[in-house]
Design a protein that fits this description.
The complex is a heterodimer. Chain A is mostly helical. Chain A is built from 22 helices and no strands. By secondary structure, chain B is α/β, with parallel strands linked by helices. Chain B is globular. Classes of the chains: A mainly alpha, B alpha/beta.
């Protein structure tokens, strides 16, 4: 039975509508996955040399040991944001004569076929076998392999459990973030160090093989926990939360903006009530933490402002990039209605600008907390912010008028390339190139601050011209209106 | 009200709409009949400027619908689910449409009261988003949102197809009232010949994109149509 179910999954993957479409996209994705895997394997084999070079004079094995838990910690966040729940796939089977335990086993096994489960194995196995095995013998090597494998399994089912819990009760999400961010902050401010804990545990593992059974026990616990939860909640109503009563919401403060306000509140509801846009929103929130990666004390001390600026553009502009790349396509399912409705295209486009600007402003203010590190970051982020709301919004709007692919907003976003067309790929290039084109001449001819100010001022000027830009984009829209409409109708 | 000049549309070499001349006057109720692929929906889409015509033009109040946005002020349409916003509750959708047409919330509430019978208790306060409603109920939402707009032109694509029998009767009654009391110009396409001849004052029979019959409804019309569609 399990085999039959898995073969159905295989078919559904290859026969899905998006799978057949766009050979170029398929090829690109294939190469991307192959490339990532190759990088992981390469990195796995190269890890030894890499550690020696990066941390000269340190014990390679100790550094490696310190890295393992750190990886699995980051892995949890990555999975939380990107790993999908395999829920809907069982819907047609619930009414068939299949035992529930079989279905749950199927769900669990099916979920294991996941990119995130392959990654740690590829990354850690070569080192564990070659270096650990070479230095400390087969037992130590086996201990590492077993630990890494079962830690992967532990993470996998832990995330599935948390995600399922969140569907039932949204407070779990808050709890998850509080715990995760709390641990992250503790590590960042050296209250305790994940690296140290990790290196202590794993260097013990070298000599005490039995320690790897802790990982096995953890994995077993998280598997059984998830299994029991599913057994109790397999009914669709419970899992998809459909029995929930939907209430009407009105945002009174948007009333004063007339039709535009109405469109904005429509967008807000779109963001909050649909899976894929919600993920985009969540990702934007998660990107706020990228400051800890970009705004390194070394980068600030070395005057590496170009790098900081890039970080600032990403952090303050992530919503524009993420949401804006499908600016109109989010509404593809009811675009016919919008275009036939009593609504001017100009107002429609204006409402999009308003939304992008408003959310970016909120992100800008929150991310200004990084200013606690140094005032320079505030200035850099302000320049990035003005660039984003002044220029990036226009670029994103322009590409939106050239994007003809529909999106199913109810589906997850991870590795979901539905709706991606040439214009999105080109746009992702522009995200880098345009700010660089403004920044580089000034920073090379005068100095880095001149480049930063140039970017900010260019953004401000463009912002003042926003009304004019909206006119331009409206014209662009009308040029390709039918193409957009036709594309959106082809689901 | 509406003038169609030599409009044509083809998909991949197949002609879908091909109308040389058509004049629709204020207050007429037009029934569009024809088998699948006759071009009824495509014609509606052209009327609403949702697809680009290969040639010709459609004038609404003497203005080309493809170049002016004015027709949106006095035209309401419901073709399919693509006109509904799935993640809104029905109430939110009505307020949204109301707002775009300058109708205040209390105004909309007042209007919805007259739809109690039509909704049959399964639309308002149902605690569901539109995407979770059944096909028939979604259709009711779409039609009500159209009527809410208080417009001069109303376009409905196969409104009877998804409705239960009592709602079909109610819709027929409403359409007749709209025509009589407000002189609304109405377009209805349908496969239900008796309904369409009951409601409409003028019937257009389409075949492969062409209007092959254009006549005022008389008592003979139903029989003639049945004759045409006979297998």
């Amino acid at each position: 039975m399990l085999i039959t179910l898995l073969s159905h999954q295989w078919k559904s993957f290859w026969r899905s509508r998006s799978a057949g479409k766009g050979l170029a996209v398929q090829l690109f994705l294939g190469f991307l996955v192959l490339y990532l895997l190759a990088v992981a394997v390469g990195l796995g084999f190269y890890l030894n040399t890499f550690i020696q070079k990066t941390f000269p004079g340190k014990d390679v094995v100790l550094v490696f040991c310190g890295f393992i838990l750190y990886y699995f910690f980051a892995d949890i966040l990555m999975r939380f944001l990107l790993q999908d729940l395999p829920t809907l796939t069982i819907q047609p089977y619930l009414i068939q004569n299949i035992k529930r335990r079989q279905l749950i086993s199927f769900l669990n096994i099916r979920s294991l076929f996941n990119f995130f489960n392959l990654l740690p194995l590829l990354l850690f196995i070569p080192f564990s076998v070659v270096i650990i095995g070479g230095k400390f013998g087969a037992a130590a090597s086996a201990g590492f392999l077993i630990s890494i494998f079962f830690l992967t399994v532990f993470n996998h089912f832990l995330i599935l459990y948390i995600k399922r819990k969140i569907i039932v009760n949204a407070w779990w999400m808050v709890g998850f973030f509080v715990v995760f961010v709390g641990l992250g902050l503790c590590d960042y401010f050296n209250i305790f160090s994940l690296t140290n804990i990790s290196s202590i545990i794993f260097s013990k593992l070298i000599y005490h093989f039995w320690l790897c059974f802790i990982a096995v026990a953890l994995a077993a616990f998280s598997f059984i926990n998830n299994y029991n939860f599913l057994l109790k909640n397999l009914f669709l109503e419970d899992i998809s939360g459909k029995s929930k009563c939907r209430e009407s919401t009105e945002y009174a403060f948007l009333d004063r903006f007339g039709n535009m306000g109405e469109l904005i509140s429509l967008d807000v509801k779109l963001l909050l009530r649909n899976k894929r846009p919600r993920t985009a929103l969540l990702l934007s929130a998660a990107f706020l933490f990228y400051g800890f990666i970009f705004y390194k004390p070394e980068a600030i001390a070395n005057g590496n402002y170009g790098f900081l600026l890039m970080g600032g553009i990403f952090i303050t502009g992530i919503f524009i990039i993420n949401y804006g790349q499908f600016l109109f396509a989010w509404q593809s399912s009811h675009f016919d209605g919008l275009m036939a409705g009593n609504l001017h295209v100009r107002t429609y486009i204006k409402s999009k600008f308003f939304l992008l600007t408003a959310v970016s402003t909120v992100i800008f203010f929150i991310s200004s907390l990084y200013g606690l590190l140094t005032w320079k970051i505030i200035v850099i982020q302000a320049a990035a912010y003005f660039y984003n709301i002044g220029i990036n919004t226009v670029i994103v709007g322009y590409f939106a008028t050239r994007s003809y692919k529909a999106i199913d907003i109810s589906r997850g976003a991870t590795f979901n390339y539905q709706g991606l067309g040439a214009s999105q790929w080109i746009y992702s290039l522009f995200v880098f190139l345009v700010p660089m084109a403004i920044y580089l001449p000034f920073s090379l001819l005068i100095n880095k601050w001149a480049g930063i100010f140039a970017l900010g001022i260019a953004g401000l000027i463009s912002l003042l011209l926003q009304d004019w830009w909206i006119g331009v984009l409206t014209k662009q829209f009308f040029k390709r209106k039918y193409l957009i409409l036709q594309g959106f109708r082809e689901k | 009200m509406i003038t169609v000049n030599n409009i044509g549309k083809a998909y991949g070499g197949v002609i879908v709409v091909d109308i040389t001349q058509l004049q629709i006057n204020v207050g007429e109720t037009i029934g569009l009949v024809g088998n699948n692929g006759a071009g009824k929906t495509t014609f509606f889409r052209l009327l609403l400027d949702l697809i680009k015509a290969d040639r010709g033009e459609i004038l609404s109040k003497e203005k080309n619908v493809a170049t002016s946005e004015e027709w949106k002020n006095y035209t309401a349409a419901y073709l399919d689910e693509g006109f509904l916003i799935g993640y809104l509750t029905p109430e939110e959708y009505f307020y949204f449409t109301g707002k775009l047409n300058n109708r205040s919330k209390p105004d909309v509430d007042e209007f919805l009261k007259t739809f109690d019978l039509f909704f049959d208790g399964s639309i308002l306060n149902s605690g569901k988003y539109i995407r979770d409603l059944s096909k028939g109920n979604q259709f009711k939402v779409g039609i009500a949102a159209c009527l809410l707009q208080d417009t001069e032109i109303l376009i409905l694509d196969e409104p009877f197809a998804n409705l239960d029998p009592s709602t079909q009767m109610r819709l027929i009654k409403m359409l007749k009232e709209l025509q009589e009391q407000r002189r609304m110009t109405i377009f209805v396409s349908s496969h239900d010949l008796s309904h369409v001849t009951d409601v409409c004052s003028r019937i257009l029979l389409m075949e492969k994109g062409k209007i092959i019959k254009d006549q005022t409804t008389t008592e003979e019309t139903l029989k003639e149509l049945e004759q045409y569609f006979k297998v």
